[in-house]
Amino acid sequence: MLFKRRLTGKDGAFCLYGPFKHKGGYTSESNKAFDQSLKSQAPHMGIRDVEALSELAKAVGLQLQDDVAMPANNELLVFVRGICEP
């Protein structure tokens, strides 16, 4: 599982960097091409959807606090312990 309780302390944060999709849509044509390239190598690989990652995080008591735009169509997702306990 991507998110594990031991990754963050009581007040910790989990940060995830890379290209992401939003509601199934790509943020750029280059990310779409990169996703297709990854999937052609192995079907389980590819760019992940922020909403799907947020659901996985919620299952272990984390919530998305921030989504920071980064260079080259990447993003930094910041998950923190929230009121949603698993």
Quick recap of the structure?
The chain is α+β, with helices and mostly antiparallel strands. Helix content is 26%, strand content 31%.
Shape: globular
Strand adjacency order, main sheet? 1-5-4
Number of helices: 2
Q: Roughly what is the average pLDDT, rounded to an integer? A: 87
**Distance between the first and last residues' Cα:** 14 Å
Strand content: 25-35%
Q: What structural category characterises the helix and strand content?
A: alpha+beta
User: Which blocks of ≥5 consecutive residues have pLDDT under 50?
Assistant: none
The total of beta strands comes to: 5
Helix content: 25-40%
**Helix and strand pattern:** EEHEHEE
**Radius of gyration, taken over Cα atoms and rounded to an integer in Å:** 14 Å
Largest sheet: 3 strands, antiparallel
Descriptive account of the structure:
The protein has 86 residues and is an alpha+beta fold. The protein is 26% helix and 31% strand. The protein contains two helices and five strands. It has helices at residues 29-41, 50-58; strands at residues 13-18, 20-21, 48-49, 62-70, 74-81. The strands form two sheets. Strands 1-5-4 form a three-stranded antiparallel beta sheet, covered by helices on one side. Strand 4 (62-70) and strand 5 (74-81) form a beta hairpin. The longest helix is centred in the middle third of the chain and has 13 residues, at 29-41. The radius of gyration is 14 Å and the shape is globular. The model has no long low-confidence stretch (mean pLDDT 87).
